[in-house]
Give the backbone structure.
Amino acid sequence: MKSKFSAFLLTAFGLASQVPTNACTGITLKSKDGATIAARTVEWAESVMNTMYVVVPRHEKLQSLTPTGMDGIKFTSKHGYIGLAVEQKEFMVEGVNEKGLSAGLFYFPNYGKYQPFEEKHKDKSLADFQVVSYVLSQCSTVDEVKEKLMKVRIINIDPRSSTVHWRFTEPSGRQIVLEIVNETLNFYENPLGVLTNSPGIEWHWTNLNNYINLMPGTSPEHNFGPIDSKSFGHGSGLLGLPGDFTPPSRFVRATFFQLTAAQQPTAQETIVQAFHLLNNFDIPTGIEFDWDKSPADVPSGTQFTVATDTHNQMIYYRTMYNSNIRCIDLKNIDFDKVEYHAKPLDEIKKQPIELIQIK
């Protein structure tokens, strides 16, 4: 029997062959004082998503969904954590735990393939949209992530929905990416720290070879025979940088923006820098639809942007309704006493505007 959660995945995220698609962009920065910042956008342009932050205490008893209901792997949270979820509190797309481990999922259509769900293995089955929650509850390092995930069966709740891939970042700065292809878990060390969507991360690394001519700054004057040519403006060294919103183009753009960004002194300054860099990846809803087909009630294809300070255990976010940056400090939470609960990212879905009074 198909569960309401199965129906949700098909409605909210669409099949791999449908558009518009989820188009997340992730970067990783490091401050001079040693903090690692994992930041990313979360996109969905077809409708307004129900977004929320979820507080999970230590010792919370949890269970994964399967195609037959809430009857998958059972687990108890070893660590308290904060997750940002979509539609259902169980479906966390990004989060951080009290040990500073960050986890996030990214859309990965057409390239991934999980193991099929089998009733006899349901006690080891973990829904892909609950991997973030499972990892944050159980792990404090990326080595523990590998160890734990090798012992479970990651599945789709509905086999027709798209696959995803994941990135996991620890306070040391070490980051890994997990992609499940042909039912096999593939872990990749990701020293670059950039992640988008399909194809796989190794393909994106290879594709960077097509852009080795790019450089920051202004190109020098050039002589075309009798004609002297000069740059029209700053940044001409990046002429040829792809500007569309496909995953390969966003990966290249994110790589160059990240690599050319000046390192900031502190974690908080780096957080602000991360939001500025990710401004370049806000997706206007109109580009993902045919002419005059864009929904008028979705302000942006980028529904929210999040940055995590893994060193100081702080998570920051802003939304398409409110550009103000908000923060949750995990160190101020007593994870032995706090109750498991979820609250919307926006209590009021309207951008606040400050009126300047002139006297």
